[in-house]
């Protein structure tokens, strides 16, 4: 059994890593503590891609005192020169004598190399302390490294009778202020937000993070950019005047045959990236879409879409987490369904495990994963 | 401010009263404590109509020690000869010197008379201690005495996407064992259970209390009878072989013009009580139905009905409590709606206050009241 002290130090490193929740993408969130016994000598976390890694910051704070000390890191230190020098080398050079890493680097091409480099330098290395807690820091980075696809969060706001809008499409506002602020935080941790052209045409949303609605972000680093906005739009029907096209990068995924059409070229002329993907009867080929987004370095994807696209994600079992905001209202039996999901028998029902359930203002937020 | 001791004693009386939750109907649940200082001399609760009242039981336990003692009673003691002698007289004869009553008798024709009788005998009487807690013992009795109608609980079992059944009608089982046991307890506290003939024809339910599924009822008195089962059935289509017609009393509310038809007379021949009421476009005249049930002495009505009847109760704002059992599943967009409730605009949405929210096995139970 690992010592209480060691668990405490790693817990602190995890806590530090969370400070990068709005800012590290596409890099992972990483925290590091340098300590001798119960005394913390240096703390660091990764803030932004291109800037210092967690280990470098913690070592810099510890200075010469790092010699002979222990490093607690939420992720295996890197072994390669990227935009910054390898952290494994820095730990060795600083004279660190013991390393705890919560998780291995999930990137198959470098996994284990950092640990190896440390061990070759005579440093005792243990991997796995608070591994679950550390993995939760980076569900998207972990999944993308393993599968090439982003972590998919599907967000829905519905009534207790399972409606997301009136038959007319009227839907503002089902949930309250606090739930909408919570969605701002969800957007801010996301690398990309996906919607369908139907939502763009009906609601003309911006799908940006509005900093003033994020509220107090505590000691987290300020969001450094808007998430990439992604529109599934077979025929490039997104109007050039659509609000979503302003305020940051936008990708439009259309049918391959659409790319050369006038509407698509009009969008391209605005600087919108267009990519042709396959379409099926029920809409975009979501699996191919996810592969493309993974290739773009998207770790965490938030889907804020209408019932059709939402239903496709659910029926193809491509949702990692369903974030369901439930308002204590009935919108009536003529309202729009939560998701387009035609099922015939009880045996086909979609079963969820409730991972988290909490009150958000007057509403309830459920985080659901497929059973 | 009332003394801690007095609040504790009344809380004990409320606790005792709850022991009659399955058995006192149509009488109210009442508890009584006879005490001197911190010493409880006698305790009683009403168990069944026709049997001793709470005060009589507590006085009997206290015996001669009651002289000069204080009585804590959840409801104003009765002043009239009913099936038992008046409790106010018994308290006087026992030499009680001080009485706390949590609530006045809500029956307008006797309210205040018990208190008056006690005061005339020189007893100091205070009314209102833990009044809310005591009122919750008898929402139906209180409401019926004030309005002539029962307390209406609408029970629904739905998925997170707001469906109560598949399009085919298949609905067994949406919720889990624990939720179904909870519904048994809900039935057992109810004086009557209302359903529509559609549900009878589709599901052939019994709507009885199955004692073995009630589980441990603690120190509560055993249920003494089945709740009255009530069917809204305009044309007397309930099949004489229907399961619901067995296992206790059944009332069929049909259209007045149906009473003399052969199907109605076939039911009457089985001992089923038929009553003609008005029908409107969207079904039975629920207000008239509630008046009739109130006149029958029904305090607490449980509605277990299909979407049409449920929708009528909601749209006519006749639901006192909506008990919604939510299973962590999606049944899909082709499933049956929670309630037939055609609404056009967000402004018409039905807003609920969550009075209670708790986990029941894998499911969530919400008790909702109209905002």
UniProtKB/TrEMBL annotation, chains A, B:
Domain of life: Bacteria
Binding locations of Zn(2+): 53, 78, 87
Cofactor-binding details, from the entry: Binds 1 zinc ion.
CMP/dCMP-type deaminase domain: residues covered: 4-126
Keyword Zinc belongs to the record: yes
Enzyme Commission code: 3.5.4.26, 1.1.1.193
Chain positions recorded as substrate binding sites: 171, 187, 203, 207, 210, 304
Cofactor(s) the record lists: Zn(2+)
GO process terms (BP): riboflavin biosynthetic process
GO molecular function: 5-amino-6-(5-phosphoribosylamino)uracil reductase activity; diaminohydroxyphosphoribosylaminopyrimidine deaminase activity; NADP binding; zinc ion binding
Pfam families, A to Z: dCMP_cyt_deam_1, RibD_C
Record-listed NADP(+) binding positions: 157, 173, 199
Keyword GTP-binding: no
Record field: catalytic activity: 2,5-diamino-6-hydroxy-4-(5-phosphoribosylamino)-pyrimidine + H2O + H(+) = 5-amino-6-(5-phospho-D-ribosylamino)uracil + NH4(+); 5-amino-6-(5-phospho-D-ribitylamino)uracil + NADP(+) = 5-amino-6-(5-phospho-D-ribosylamino)uracil + NADPH + H(+)
InterPro entries reported for this sequence: APOBEC/CMP_deaminase_Zn-bd (IPR016192), CMP_dCMP_dom (IPR002125), Cytidine_deaminase-like (IPR016193), DHFR-like_dom_sf (IPR024072), Eubact_RibD (IPR004794), RibD_C (IPR011549), RibDG_C (IPR002734), Riboflavin_Biosynth_HTPR (IPR050765)
Keywords linked to the UniProt accession: Hydrolase, Metal-binding, Multifunctional enzyme, NADP, Oxidoreductase, Riboflavin biosynthesis, Zinc
Pathway(s) annotated for this protein in UniProt: Cofactor biosynthesis; riboflavin biosynthesis; 5-amino-6-(D-ribitylamino)uracil from GTP: step 3/4; Cofactor biosynthesis; riboflavin biosynthesis; 5-amino-6-(D-ribitylamino)uracil from GTP: step 2/4
Active site, UniProt feature: 55 (proton donor)
Family: In the N-terminal section; belongs to the cytidine and deoxycytidylate deaminase family.
Function statement: Converts 2,5-diamino-6-(ribosylamino)-4(3h)-pyrimidinone 5'-phosphate into 5-amino-6-(ribosylamino)-2,4(1h,3h)-pyrimidinedione 5'-phosphate.
Family annotation (PANTHER family): 2,5-DIAMINO-6-RIBOSYLAMINO-4(3H)-PYRIMIDINONE 5'-PHOSPHATE REDUCTASE, DIHYDROFOLATE REDUCTASE FAMILY PROTEIN (AFU_ORTHOLOGUE AFUA_8G06820)
Official protein name in the record: Riboflavin biosynthesis protein RibD
Gene designation: ribD
């Amino acid at each position: 059994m690992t010592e209480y002290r060691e668990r405490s130090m790693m817990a602190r490193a995890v806590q530090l890593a969370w400070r990068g929740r709005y800012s590290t993408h596409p890099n992972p969130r990483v925290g590091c503590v340098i300590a001798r016994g119960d005394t913390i000598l240096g703390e660091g976390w990764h803030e932004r891609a291109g800037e210092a890694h967690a280990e470098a910051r913690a070592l810099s704070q510890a200075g010469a005192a790092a010699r002979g000390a222990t490093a607690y890191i939420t992720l295996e230190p890197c072994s390669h020169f990227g935009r910054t020098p390898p952290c494994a080398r820095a730990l060795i050079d600083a004279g660190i004598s013991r390393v705890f890493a919560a998780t291995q680097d999930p990137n198959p091409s470098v996994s284990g190399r950092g640990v190896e480099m440390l061990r070759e330098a005579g440093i005792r290395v243990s991997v796995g302390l608070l591994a679950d807690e550390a993995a939760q820091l980076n569900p998207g980075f972990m999944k993308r490294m393993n599968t090439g696809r982003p972590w998919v969060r599907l967000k829905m706001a519905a009534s207790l009778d399972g409606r997301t809008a009136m038959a007319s499409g009227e839907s503002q506002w089902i949930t309250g202020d606090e739930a909408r602020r919570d969605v701002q935080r969800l957007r801010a941790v996301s690398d990309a937000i996906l919607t369908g052209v139907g939502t763009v045409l009906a609601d003309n949303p911006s799908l940006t993070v509005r900093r003033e609605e994020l509220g107090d972000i505590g000691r987290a680093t300020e969001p450094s950019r808007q998430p990439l906005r992604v529109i599934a739009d077979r025929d490039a029907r997104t109007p050039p005047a659509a609000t979503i096209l302003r305020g940051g990068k936008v990708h439009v995924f259309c049918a391959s045959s659409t790319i050369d059409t006038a509407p698509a070229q009009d969008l391209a002329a605005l600087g919108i990236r267009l990519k042709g993907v396959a379409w099926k009867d029920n809409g975009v080929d979501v699996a191919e879409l996810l592969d493309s987004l993974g290739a773009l370095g998207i770790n965490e994807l938030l889907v804020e879409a209408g019932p059709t696209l939402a239903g496709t994600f659910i029926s193809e079992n491509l949702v990692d987490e369903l974030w369901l905001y439930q308002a204590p209202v009935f919108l009536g039996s003529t309202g729009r369904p939560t998701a387009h999901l035609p099922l015939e028998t009880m045996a086909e029902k979609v079963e969820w495990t409730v991972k988290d359930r909490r009150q958000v203002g007057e509403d309830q937020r459920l985080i659901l994963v497929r059973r």
